[in-house]
């Protein structure tokens, strides 16, 4: 046996074992939920014994670092914003959820916690996981973004989560955290940035962005809309069961086709969300919010907003909430005293 | 099953454990069963072809050695391929074997048997030559039909239509069986060696069948010689720890070359050689360099894994690659690239044609013919013939001034190497551009793009250079480490701390790029 196991082999095994042990012991919290790929029921909410809930990570995506109390403090209006990278924004204080909280506080002197639960690449399925968890923490209002662009990423991550849980021999090697993390880091940090989009389209079968970008097929778009609709119907029913107002925001895209001036399009999302409206469910169209003469200047790219775009959206949402206070539950909240801070604690 | 599939990673340890648990004839039976199981994983029907080649060359080999097989035994053996088609017909309906195919296999078996018995009516050298021709004709007929029938029919049709004659040829959808070129040549080499008196015929059908179908090298080489491999298969050697250590080391290096180098370089190469791609000079060069590393990593990686798998069983397969991109001239290149095939063509075609024993022009003719056929071996396409002709032309050109000045007597690095190496690299890359192109039209487009150096409108190439460097520099560093051992898998000779570090890095690089079931390029040959 001694001759069979050479010093080189032993060195290899020991180093790998130590690395794996270190990852599982000292980075347990960092790893926790990492390989559920956004389908962990805890959804990246880490609750401490003192009732503080800290937002950590869900799958490979991190929340903006925030924390709040499990039980909503009295006289506090708690808003949860669920969505993808569009509401997540370029930074915590540039994104509209924070600005919305500031706006409501300034206009109505309300004590507001506006918590940004948006995560990049999250489609309808994974947003639903976040929503289900968020409903445990006594929100006053849920703002939910509806898009049609992250279906493939949702499905890819779902496939990854199944692979990680499964015990098929083809996945044994990836049970090792170090290996799996390395593989994903190579894919996301090296392959996607270095290989041009046109090549990724032809090569990558698991590249969600490439598949989405590749698919301008009307049937594919219609399928994505259908999935978004089915999931939203479930979300509406879920939120209604909790008797919490829901504001659905239909996203739009800035398209610059050859031969046409830049224009906003929503691929039917607006009509879909409008159809879901009803008691306790309200709709705001991003396309209507940005339907001004300089709409293109608010967009950083085809889908994401610049800081001024987030500000405009925050103002539009604040106007809607304040105009329809009874619908959004505002009159039950006491006015905050001057000097009191608003918003969640950013950590 | 592919070497880089999870099925093989389960299959190999099982065979390893069973092999060393058994001894003697049971080991051979295990090897044979494992090899047939391995091949059946690709396509169960084509085991009939493997059996055909095995039976033909086993019987012809014995006959060449003066040993007559009992007629009944010869008949039963001759009908074994047909029997297998019958098994597929009865028990594997999804294999799609029809009674017609069974009948054809039986008829061919009977024809072979008939020739076999007929030749025994002769005596002496005439009979020996007859059996040699019988083996060559039947084996090459099988190879020719499955690999080249469509090509020749289509080429003839094109030629006739160019002459104004309209034809309506029979076009069959013929599937190319995996590894047919390799095991056919290996088997033929065995027969020719017996004819020449270099080797004796194998008396045991099981042993010979295991040689013919030995799973590590059956589908993509290296092409072994009977007198080198058969004694190893027959030897009842005990287990040594070095078999496991060396075998795993070779397999890891092979995995690294295939998964990390070849498959990642393929990302760029496939794009550059996509007919829909609008190339410029940057992408033409980037693409062919990427392909050069892809094909090297793919093929030599496969060979390393094959050698490593065989080494686990205590069997040494011949070296097939030895730092080919350090070649300083075409002769040097062909002594480093696919060495077993080069040696096969040298020993069984070039030398019988006369080699370099005749006049200078005869030598050049022999070189040209050999390389033309070597090109054709790679595929049923005029582009491969062109590639072979190109390398033949290079071999010829390097015998004349001024290039003969760069043809050193050995491959040692000298001051001439500073010119010889880059020049040879250019020639190799041009050859790979031919090899990779789908047809002459695409090849011409590649050459034309070398004159267009404006930046591509929609495709940045600089970041892709970074991608290529990331996946080739580790290979280059590994080869520099092992260069002094003159063995591409010489990692196992390094001091253990260095070896352990290299193993760790190779493993991490392999894992970072692992994706399931990417095909090996040389499987198509």
Walkthrough of the structure:
The complex is a heterodimer of chains A (347) and B (525). Chain A is α/β, with parallel strands linked by helices. Chain A is 45% helix and 14% strand. Chain A has helices at 7-26, 28-31, 85-88, 96-108, 124-134, 151-165, 177-194, 197-203, 208-214, 218-241, 269-276, 286-289, 307-323, 325-328; strands at residues 45-47, 52-55, 57-58, 61-62, 66-69, 77-82, 112-116, 141-146, 246-250, 253-255, 263-265, 281-285, 345-346. In chain A, the strands form four sheets. In chain A, strands 7-6-8-9-12 form a five-stranded parallel sheet, sandwiched between helices. A four-stranded antiparallel sheet of chain A has the order 1-2-5-13, with no helix packed on it. A two-stranded antiparallel sheet of chain A has the order 3-4. In chain A, strand 10 and strand 11 (263-265) form a beta hairpin. Chain B folds into two domains: 24-234, no CATH class; 242-512, no CATH class. Chain B is built from 21 helices and no strands. In chain B, helix 17 packs antiparallel against helix 18.
Please give the structural blueprint.
The complex is a heterodimer of chains A (347) and B (525).
Chain A: H1 7-26, H2 28-31, E1 45-47, E2 52-55, E3 57-58, E4 61-62, E5 66-69, E6 77-82, H3 85-88, H4 96-108, E7 112-116, H5 124-134, E8 141-146, H6 151-165, H7 177-194, H8 197-203, H9 208-214, H10 218-241, E9 246-250, E10 253-255, E11 263-265, H11 269-276, E12 281-285, H12 286-289, H13 307-323, H14 325-328, E13 345-346
Parallel strand pairs in A: 6-7, 6-8, 8-9, 9-12
Antiparallel strand pairs in A: 1-2, 2-5, 3-4, 5-13, 10-11
Helix pairs in contact in A: 4-13, 5-10, 6-9, 8-9, 10-11
Chain B: H1 6-21, H2 25-40, H3 47-64, H4 71-78, H5 80-91, H6 99-119, H7 124-162, H8 180-196, H9 205-213, H10 215-218, H11 226-234, H12 241-272, H13 281-312, H14 330-334, H15 339-353, H16 360-378, H17 382-397, H18 417-436, H19 440-449, H20 462-482, H21 496-512
């Amino acid at each position: 046996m001694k001759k069979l196991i050479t010093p080189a082999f032993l060195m290899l095994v020991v180093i790998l074992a130590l690395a794996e042990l270190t990852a599982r012991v000292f980075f347990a919290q960092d790893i926790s939920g990492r390989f559920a790929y956004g389908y962990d029921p805890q959804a990246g909410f880490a609750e401490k014994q003192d009732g503080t809930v800290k937002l950590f990570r869900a799958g490979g995506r991190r929340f903006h670092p925030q924390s709040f109390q499990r039980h909503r403090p009295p006289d506090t209006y708690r808003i949860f914003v669920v969505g993808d990278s569009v509401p997540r924004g370029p930074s915590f204080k540039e994104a509209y959820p924070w600005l919305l909280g500031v706006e409501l506080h300034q206009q109505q002197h309300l004590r507001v916690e506006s918590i940004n639960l948006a995560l990049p690449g999250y489609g309808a399925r994974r947003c639903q996981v976040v929503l289900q968890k968020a409903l445990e923490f006594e929100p006053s209002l849920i703002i939910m973004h509806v898009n049609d662009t992250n279906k493939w990423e949702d499905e890819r991550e779902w496939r990854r989560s199944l692979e990680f849980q499964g015990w098929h021999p083809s996945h044994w090697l990836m049970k090792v955290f170090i290996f799996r993390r390395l593989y994903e880091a190579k894919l996301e940090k090296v392959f996607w940035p270095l290989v041009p989009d046109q090549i990724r389209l032809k090569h990558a079968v698991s590249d969600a962005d490439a598949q989405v970008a590749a698919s301008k097929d009307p049937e594919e778009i219609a399928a994505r809309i259908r999935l978004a609709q089915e999931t939203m119907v479930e979300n509406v029913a879920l939120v209604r069961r909790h008797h919490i107002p829901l504001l659905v925001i239909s996203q739009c895209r800035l398209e610059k086709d050859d031969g046409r001036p830049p224009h906003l399009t929503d691929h039917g999302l607006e009509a879909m969300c409008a159809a879901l409206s009803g008691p306790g469910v309200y709709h705001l169209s991003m396309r209507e919010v940005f339907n001004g003469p300089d709409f293109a200047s608010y967009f950083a790219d085809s889908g994401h907003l610049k800081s001024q775009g987030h500000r405009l959206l925050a103002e539009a949402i604040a106007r809607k909430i304040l105009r329809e206070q009874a619908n959004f539950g505002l009159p039950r909240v006491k006015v905050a005293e001057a000097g009191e801070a608003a918003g969640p604690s950013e950590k | 099953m592919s070497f880089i599939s999870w099925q093989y990673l389960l299959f190999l340890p099982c065979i390893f454990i069973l092999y060393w648990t058994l001894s003697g004839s049971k080991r051979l039976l295990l090897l044979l069963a494992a090899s047939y199981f391995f091949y059946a994983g690709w396509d169960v029907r084509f085991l009939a072809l493997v059996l055909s080649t095995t039976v033909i060359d086993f019987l012809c080999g014995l006959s060449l050695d003066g040993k007559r097989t009992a007629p009944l035994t010869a008949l039963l053996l001759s009908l074994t391929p047909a029997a297998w088609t019958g098994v597929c017909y009865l028990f594997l309906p999804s294999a799609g074997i029809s009674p017609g195919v069974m009948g054809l296999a039986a008829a061919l078996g009977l024809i072979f048997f008939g020739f076999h018995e007929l030749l025994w009516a002769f005596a002496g050298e005439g009979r020996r030559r007859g059996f040699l021709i019988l083996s060559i004709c039947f084996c090459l007929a099988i190879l020719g039909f499955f690999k080249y029938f469509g090509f020749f029919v289509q080429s003839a049709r094109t030629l006739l239509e160019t002459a104004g004659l309209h034809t309506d040829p029979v076009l069959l959808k013929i599937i190319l069986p995996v590894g047919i070129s390799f095991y056919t040549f290996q088997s033929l080499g065995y027969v020719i060696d017996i004819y020449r008196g270099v080797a004796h015929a194998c008396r045991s059908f099981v042993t010979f069948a295991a040689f013919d179908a030995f799973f590590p090298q059956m589908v993509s080489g290296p092409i072994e010689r009977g007198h080198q491999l058969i004694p190893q298969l027959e030897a009842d050697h005990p287990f040594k720890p070095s078999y496991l250590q060396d075998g795993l080391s070779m397999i890891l290096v092979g995995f690294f070359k295939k998964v990390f180098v070849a498959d990642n370089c393929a990302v760029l190469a496939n794009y550059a050689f996509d007919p829909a791609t609008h190339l410029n000079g940057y992408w033409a060069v980037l693409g062919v360099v990427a392909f050069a590393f892809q094909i090297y990593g793919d093929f030599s990686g496969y060979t390393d894994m094959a050698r490593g798998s065989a080494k686990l069983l205590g069997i040494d397969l011949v070296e097939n690659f030895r730092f080919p991109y350090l070649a300083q001239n075409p002769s040097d290149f062909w002594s480093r690239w696919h060495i077993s095939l080069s040696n096969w063509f040298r020993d069984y075609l070039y030398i019988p044609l006369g080699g370099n024993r005749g006049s200078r022009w005869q030598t050049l003719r022999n070189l040209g013919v050999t390389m033309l056929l070597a090109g054709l071996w790679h595929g049923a396409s005029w582009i491969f013939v062109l590639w072979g002709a190109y390398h033949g032309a290079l071999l010829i050109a390097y015998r004349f001034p001024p290039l003969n000045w760069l043809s050193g007597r050995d491959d040692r690095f000298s001051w001439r190497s500073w010119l010889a190496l880059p020049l040879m690299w250019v020639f190799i890359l041009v050859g790979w551009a031919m090899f990779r192109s789908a047809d002459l039209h695409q090849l011409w487009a590649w050459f034309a793009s070398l004159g267009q150096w404006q930046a591509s409108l929609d495709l940045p190439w600089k970041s892709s250079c970074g991608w290529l460097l990331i996946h080739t520099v580790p290979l280059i560093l590994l080869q520099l480490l092992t260069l002094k051992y003159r063995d591409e898998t010489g990692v196992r000779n390094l001091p253990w701390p260095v070896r352990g570090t290299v193993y760790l890095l190779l493993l991490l690089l392999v894992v970072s790029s692992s994706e399931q079931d990417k095909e090996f390029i040389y499987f198509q040959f």
